[in-house]
Amino acid sequence: MSYLKFDKNLLINLDQSLTKEMLRTNQAGAYHCSTLPGMNTRKQHGLLVIPIPEKENKNFVLLSSLDETVIQHGAEFNLGLHRYRGGVIAPAGHKYIREFDCESVPRMTYRVGGVILTKEKIFISNENRILIRYTLVDAHSATTLRFKPFLAFRESNALCVANDAVNRDTEPVDNGVATCLYEGFPKLYMQLSRKPRWVPEPNWYNGIEYVKDLERGVPYCEDLWVPGYFEVPLRKGESVIFSAGVEPVKPTSLKKMYEGEIASRTPRTSFYNCLKNAAKQFYVREGEDMYVISGFPWGVVLARNTFMAVPGLTLAIDHYDDYRRIMATALAALDRYIDTGDTASRLQGIDLPDIPLWAVWAMQQYDKCDGIDTAHTYAAETARIVDYILDGGHPNLHVDPATGLLHTLGTGTPASWMNSMLNGRPVIPRSGLLVEFNALWYNALVFAAKSGEAAGLDAARVQRWRHTAELMKEPFVATFLNEAGYLYDYVDGSFADPAVRPNMAVAIGLDYSPLDRRQRKGVLDVVTRELLTPKGLRTLSPRSYGYRPFYLGSPEERELAMHQGPARPWLMGFYADAYLRVFGMSGVAYIDRMLIGFEDEMSQGCIGSLSQLYDGNPPFAGRGAVSHATNVAEVLRTLRTLKKLNV
User: Please, are residues 24 and 281 in contact by the beta-carbon 8 Å criterion?
Assistant: First the structure.
């Protein structure tokens, strides 16, 4: 039985089924995303959404959806599902759904009278092409399938409005047609594995609503172009494959292409396998370069998220070559910035002050992998980054020569991952001495000294790193550890922020910490008591001023709430590390139980993945991006840690 399986009773209840989404990617930046019953509820949803390099690599929805109609004895049964202006659902194809499962590929089963039809979707790896296979499992009389494509040809965060500039022409290709609605876009080739009948019937379908955008208080209604439809007769037991891509394909190759992709997939038969599949969906390969998408459906390539996520997305699932490729690409961009100040990189935010610190942490995780000779791999790069910071190379990282502590400015532009903005200003103006910056800095210094010594680097450099680490131990404790037993979030001059935030979990979860075991335990107790939820750590304690647990409302309201209470699963990785360092093997069972909350999420939200954030109060609903790289990565890294301890 499939680990991810949903029955008729849930699927025909749109109040329940429209909250569940499905994502597939091709590891080249393109994706398919929609709800389980097939109704698009976000403007970013679509069957084929691709980045276009000539358009700044932004994502563009080419094929929004494909309506299927079963025709028998002249009667038409439309399986499509749309919401039109005013909340009108038409057609209501969900009433024919009988089952959905997602073990190897998403498969929907429909029943229309005596007809049983299955639909399976798969993305072709590293190619902007989606295949949909339809199989007529049962039918008692002649059956025809009709396919009606809804086209958008617009940026994924925009909306389409009916216009006279649209190109109405379609050109015939093998077993299909090709079209391009506007200049500057690639052609869309729609082809089938069997010879279809193409009926040109160009028309605008006006007033399609996206209910998630309506809830978010952003524009939510658009018009889509339908150039016509295909018809294919099928007999019982026969299949037909629909292909949509930006290059033509030989129809005779579609069956082999489809079966080859299925053979390469990891079945989603467990919590771990779901997250492993989700992890690979964030990979983006461009020639020799390799990147990490921060999240879907509106994620981009971010430097911070890349370094934070790459160990969990690769090492935790034994993809060591992918780790090395992603790190080679990211470190090349960081080195260019260090050498020249050049920020022109696919990795956005390469100049942010915590990027070098997270880069060292990511290299440290590789160094810890069992069975890999790592002593020399990243020692030189780690040394270079640490010296760069010590020598004052970064314009927004300053080492106090008296204390060794690291200072940054974040009042005008956010310096850390808590980067929500409102009216051009940070919602949380973390500035001065940030707790996780200084914890990561201490950790980087100690790691650089240990790996540098093992690699035979210059002894004077190694001693300098050790000396700075020793220098900052007491000032770190004196600056951040307060009488209540937890760590201030940041200290700026005479102001020490008393808000209870999860950045202190990073400080106690790192391999090397200025805090002793007793101090770590005291901080851990506060984190457990005030921040821990079944979906990760809250971004602010309910007992702190300004707590806003629900990520809801207008864009402004959501920006205010983003780091003021909602929980982040990725912080669970550092919490688990801290817990296991304090309690040792006796903490394994506890952390294992805490992961149950994430396993429950596999059948919620974006099935098989984890959302960007979760409400800080029950029922801890998922919000934001439907699939987020750092969250998947850190839960995978925690699972890997538990597995090693249980061996």
Answer: yes
